[in-house]
Amino acid sequence: MKLKEAKTLKDLAKVTGFTESTISRTLNGIGTKYRISTETQKKIIDAANEANFKFNENARGLRLKKTMTVGFIVPDISNSFFAKMASLIEREARLHKYAVFLCDSDNSTEVEKASINLLQKRKVDGIIVCPIGLESKHLQKLYQETPLVLVDRYFPKIPLPFVTSDDGLDSYKVVQHLISKGHSKIACIQGVENTSQNNMRVKGYKNALQDNGLAFDSKFLMGNSFSEKNGYYAAQQIIAMPKKKRPTAIFSLSSIITLGILKSFTEAGLKVPLDFSIVSFDEQEYSALLATPLTTIGQPKEEMGTKAFQLLRNQMESKTKLHQEGMLLPTRLNFRDSIKAL
Length: 342
What we know:
Strand order of the largest sheet: 2-1-3-4-5-11
Radius of gyration: 26 Å
Structural class: alpha/beta
Oligomer: single chain
Helix content: 40-55%
CATH topology of the largest domain: Rossmann fold
Distance between the termini: 84 Å
CATH architecture of the largest domain: 3-Layer(aba) Sandwich
């Protein structure tokens, strides 16, 4: 039999003279673990490549009782933050020979639950969820059945593994910076209320006001979703306020919200920072390229995606249940031209 005619492990063993187990371990990437020499592994890999050998991953999965697949659920794939996160997790998974099933929960807890059921029926080895962040019981149940990691939003009082950014600290710092520039009336346009990330950002905003002797004005805390529409209508409300009573600065809790704010200002003929100063959560590729470059708080997206998959992989490949792990990663302030000194 010629090398190019080898179609099975048995065929490859006949042609190369190595045992089927040696070939299998080498092609599975565990040859070194079984003390197969580097020279032998190279010969086997070269032979397999020359034979255009297709190793049966399904059979491997059955032997290991794994499907080599993971699920990833996001609230809104059209949001650039979640799209980037999906790309990063898929890249990390591919490095470890896992495939990713992506689900969009459309900011609906019911769709999130349905997505989890679908992924479990597919018998994925683990699931990463960017949760809606309003309910956790279904996620607690999932964690008892399937390796699970939450990314971005999480539940501070619920022991589930998570990776997110420490949004409160730089929220405090950026509002403190606005105050140091003479702003005392600062609006905060928030996202989904009572989610972990929104709560951290709002808390940083409120604490900065309090520590500088400024009263919190509830009418300046506006909005209810991480959407462009939310930013647009909140900005419309601000524009409609009497000039002497309206805020001079706006803290936007996401880049999508900021797009809505800027759209509203453009329609009204208002300029940043001449008419309003703006700081925004979420650093984007365009943040520094706008007519007025935006001051932003950047989340460590790459590290979040990498760490989330690493935590999941630790669970999937461990024979015992791991203790809950949580990671709060630092954010980064990017100071630019969108703040005016009064």
